[in-house]
Design brief:
Elements lengths: L2 H6 L7 H13 L5 H18 L12 H18 L1 H19 L4 H42 L8 H10 L1 H19 L8 H7 L1 H19 L11
Helix pairs in contact: 2-10, 3-4, 3-6, 3-10, 4-6, 5-6, 6-7, 6-8, 6-10, 8-10
Length: about 230
């Protein structure tokens, strides 16, 4: 994994300012949901370019329909993988409702204790599942970028095998993306325009993420013939 390359490749593109600016606009407009799909699609397209060995991995902002569908498919995949988390949260709400409805009785005291225990167990399970999803998510994106089909996101045995075999690189990728996002989040402390700059910084995070995912995909596919430092 060439971390330095993933952080600097953007500026090697002659049109990088224009591309990042468009991405920044999409990031700012992501509060309206739909533009977020284009931004995610752009990340997928970047990863695909890196896997294909493109000289300039940073994609053009064209084929808007393709970008939208790529982003939509990744959203659907992540939503499906998040269903266990959503389910346990629903169970926690249901338990809390039952406890509130029986308050003031002996049965209510028992329910309150069981509810507290249940919510604790549910919270632990939720944290574990979200950590698992955090690790598996890069492989899901790589699988989709490689095959271009939503079904690729649900090849569970292959995804688990790839995650197990590349866990070190995956954890490094997650940490780098988190670190870049964390640093850029400090832009939010700038008065007045800070929150806009912080949102716009997501455009750069998307590019970095796409390059790192592309490196993962190339390595998973055995694509070591081309030196990633040249991308």
């Amino acid at each position: 994994m060439d971390i330095n390359k993933s952080l600097t490749f953007v500026t090697e593109d002659e049109q990088w300012i224009t591309k990042i600016t468009i991405g920044a606009v999409m990031a700012v407009l992501s509060i309206f949901i739909i533009p977020a799909f284009f931004l995610t699609g752009y990340m997928v397209r970047t990863a695909r370019n890196v896997m294909d060995g493109a000289d300039q991995p940073l994609p053009e902002w064209d084929d808007w329909g393709g970008l939208f569908m790529d982003g939509l498919y990744i959203f659907i995949a992540m939503l499906v993988y998040s269903l266990p988390f959503i389910l346990v949260v629903f169970c926690a709400i249901l338990l809390a409702g039952l406890a509130a409805g029986s308050a003031g009785s002996d049965f209510g005291d028992v329910m309150a204790g069981l509810t507290a225990l249940g919510i604790f167990v549910i919270a632990c399970l939720s944290i574990i599942w979200m950590l698992v999803l955090l690790v598996v998510a890069p492989v899901i994106v790589v699988q989709y970028a490689r095959l271009g089909e939503l079904s690729a996101c649900f090849q569970f045995s292959e995804i688990l095998a790839l995650t197990r075999d590349n866990i070190g690189d995956i954890l490094l990728t997650v940490l780098v993306i988190f670190g870049v996002s964390f640093v850029l989040s400090f832009l939010g402390i700038i008065p007045f325009i800070g929150w806009i700059l912080s949102l716009a910084g997501r455009s750069y995070v998307v590019a970095v993420s796409g390059h790192l995912y592309g490196q993962l995909g190339a390595k998973m596919a055995g694509g070591k013939e081309k030196d990633l430092s040249t991308l």
